[in-house]
């Protein structure tokens, strides 16, 4: 039986012109996770990652913290949905930069509404696949792991694909999958035990590498 470690990327640049870039905090989170994994003696036989910049940077930070060279198999099916395109399906007008708590909450209320409609097949965000196809890209990565590996595997992705993977394993509704998605923290670890036949959820959204008072301020969501 193997273990698949699904890691959400470190803090990106929410509210900035280019979101797909780790912040300094995100880089620290990634390296710290790698240090923790090395301290636990975890050895990976393979790695997969989405093709976004924040995925590559997070994977590099983990490897740096572990002191290893572990190339990741690039897997586009692990890329995040386009949140702006999702929001545009329910709010076509441009949104103000979310630089206040109220605007931040408004952004995520619209995102939740758009995701619900996309996942239920009501809307088709511009430039995005259907949710059925999005889900199939995630499930294909899971199938790749369980059919080709037997040990520890690292997977670096985003909140949407990781929540979709959990929803697939547990058989959750779209609404529950969305709630899982919006609670996943930066650099959080979700673990699946796997056999050649199936995946089984072991842990969800954990931050063992930040479980110390010195790192209390490192916990972020966006």
UniProtKB/TrEMBL annotation:
CDD domains, alphabetized: HP_PGM_like (cd07067)
GO cellular component: cytoplasm
Origin: domain of life: Bacteria
Matches recorded under Pfam families: His_Phos_1
Signal peptide range in chain numbering: none
SMART domains with a match to the protein in the record: PGAM
Gene3D superfamilies: Phosphoglycerate mutase-like
Annotated GO MF terms: phosphatase activity
Name of protein: Histidine phosphatase family protein
The species this protein was found in: Rhodoferax koreensis
């Amino acid at each position: 039986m193997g273990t698949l470690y699904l890691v959400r990327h470190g803090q990106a640049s929410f509210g900035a012109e280019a979101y797909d870039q780790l912040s300094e905090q995100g880089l620290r989170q990634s390296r710290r996770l790698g240090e923790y994994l090395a301290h636990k003696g975890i050895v990976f036989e393979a790695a997969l990652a989405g093709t976004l910049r924040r995925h590559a940077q997070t994977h590099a930070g983990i490897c740096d913290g572990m002191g290893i060279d572990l190339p990741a198999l690039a897997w586009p099916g692990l890329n995040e949905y386009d949140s702006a395109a999702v929001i545009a399906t329910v709010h076509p007008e441009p949104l103000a930069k979310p630089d206040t708590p109220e605007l931040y909450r408004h952004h995520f209320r619209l995102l939740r509404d758009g995701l619900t409609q996309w996942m239920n097949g009501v809307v088709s965000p511009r430039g995005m696949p259907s949710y059925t196809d999005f889900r199939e890209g995630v499930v294909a990565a899971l199938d790749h792991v369980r059919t080709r590996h037997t040990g520890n595997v690292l997977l670096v992705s985003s909140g949407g694909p990781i929540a979709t993977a959990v929803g697939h394993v547990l058989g959750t509704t779209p609404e529950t999958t969305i709630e899982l998605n919006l609670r996943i923290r930066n650099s959080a670890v979700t673990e699946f035990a796997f056999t050649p036949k199936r995946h089984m959820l072991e842990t969800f959204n954990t931050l063992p590498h930040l479980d110390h008072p010195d790192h209390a301020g490192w916990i972020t969501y966006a």
